[in-house]
From TrEMBL:
This is NHLP bacteriocin system secretion protein. InterPro entries: MFP (IPR050739), NHPM_bacteriocin_SS_HylD (IPR022275). It comes from Thalassobius vesicularis. The keyword Phosphoprotein does not apply. SUPFAM superfamilies: HlyD-like secretion proteins. The chain crosses the membrane at residues 35-54.
Length: 423
């Protein structure tokens, strides 16, 4: 049966070749170009399949930031007192040390008050000198009077003492005569009364002398109180002068509160300032700079330290350089407050740009640097020599996830398969 079929098929083929109707058809030949196209298409398909499984699709979180020194901060320098800004002693970008003069403030009102206080001290000193002379004259006059009264009392005491002695002797004689009956008792009583009177007079004179000493002491104490009152009045006025002079000296010059660099000068000479008005901002901390970026609140929790980032400073074009390679150093655990942002940005007007959708998360990004030169590394491998100063704005893209393309297609494939199975 098989041999018969083979003969039939061969006969049909021979008949077909010998049929004159087939002589006008050309022989089809596969050209090399078509073969190359087929092979190229096959390679593309194979490459696509390989890319689906081995390729990388990055999930990026964008953010805007500003470069700031590592471990640095923005310090506001405010006017310590009311006055007129007479001079600025530094320029923007200048390095300063703590205690270095930054500006001078003219305070004519305080200077006038100080001059008036100094004049009051001089007037009080002259008045006190006059009053001191008066007190001294009064004391000399009083002391002379007291000395005369004391001398008189001393004489009276001496005379009365002699009188007491005489009266005592007279009483003794009268008592002896009375015992012998030579005098009457009345004479003895008179002698005794005279002796008592003399003794009482002596006590009175001595008491007057003690009172005189007390009067002298009281007068001296009053002089001391008067002098103390004068000295206290002068001391208070001199202390006021000292305080005003200290204020004039202290508030005349605005000093740098810390080491750093002048980031911005916010006032100009001749402007009127008041306590708390910002004159300048200082940037503390040392190089190298880090990028402090702010990301939307809904994406902040997707970022973790160590994640790769691409940073593009505002001073370069991404199309030309590709950006700088970087790594996430830290991320805030919660959205940051406007006050914390101002401490980094140094300018409240920048808040709308960095927090357009509410309180953002703060991400500190550290640039990758060449181990030999310390220069930042460009994503393209080559880039311009760039000196990044603090305060430079930049954009950042943080890679939070890397997936093969097939992983992104799997949800659609699964949904398609489920839909096909359902039908």
């Amino acid at each position: 049966m098989s041999d018969q079929s083979s003969r039939v098929f061969r006969k049909a083929a021979l008949d077909r070749l010998s049929d004159p109707d087939q002589l006008d058809e050309a022989i089809r030949v596969v050209r090399p170009f078509d073969l190359v196209a087929v092979l190229a298409l096959a390679c593309l398909v194979a490459a696509g399949v390989v890319w689906l499984f081995l390729g990388q699709v990055k999930t990026l979180v964008p953010g805007d930031g500003i470069f700031a020194p590592a471990d640095g901060a923005i310090v506001q320098v405010s006017a310590p007192a009311e006055g007129s800004l007479s001079a600025l002693l530094v320029t923007t970008g200048q390095a300063v040390t703590a205690g270095m003069p930054l500006a001078q403030i003219s305070q004519p009102e305080l200077r006038l008050e100080l001059a008036q206080a100094q004049a009051a001290v001089a007037e009080l000193q002259a008045r006190n000198a006059t009053r001191e002379a008066q007190i001294a004259d009064r004391a000399r006059s009083r002391d002379a009077g007291l000395a005369a009264r004391r001398a008189a009392l001393d004489e009276q005491i001496a005379a009365t003492t002699r009188r007491v002695s005489v009266q005592a002797d007279q009483l003794a004689r009268d008592e002896a005569l009375l015992a012998r009956g030579l005098v009457v008792r009345r004479a003895v009583e008179d002698s005794r009364r005279q002796l008592d009177d003399a003794r009482q007079a002596l006590l009175d004179f001595k008491a007057a002398l003690v009172a005189l000493d007390g009067e002298a002491l009281a007068a001296k104490q009053q002089d001391d109180r008067d002098r103390a009152a004068l000295a206290e009045e002068l001391r208070i006025q001199q202390e006021r002068v000292t305080q005003l002079d200290l204020r004039a000296r202290e508030f005349q010059v605005v000093l740098a509160p810390a080491d750093g660099r002048v980031k911005e000068l916010l006032a100009r000479p001749g402007e009127r300032v008041a306590p708390g008005v910002r004159i300048a901002t200082l940037e503390t901390g040392a190089a190298p700079v880090r990028l402090v970026a702010y990301v939307a609140p809904e994406t902040g929790k997707r970022i973790a330290p160590g994640m790769a980032a691409l940073v593009v400073p505002s001073t370069v074009r991404r199309a030309e350089t590709g950006g700088l390679r970087a790594r996430v150093l830290s991320v805030s655990s919660a959205p940051v407050s406007p006050q914390a942002m101002i401490a980094v940005l140094g300018n409240e007007s920048l808040l709308p740009r960095f927090a357009p959708l509410g309180a953002p998360f703060e991400v500190v990004i550290e640039l990758e640097r060449d181990t030999d030169t310390g220069a930042p590394l460009w994503a393209t491998g080559q880039g311009p020599t760039l000196e990044i100063d603090s305060g430079t704005l930049a954009t950042a893209e943080i890679t939070v996830r890397i997936d093969p393309p097939i992983a992104l297609l799997m949800p659609a494939i699964k949904a398609l398969l489920r839909g096909g199975g359902g039908s």
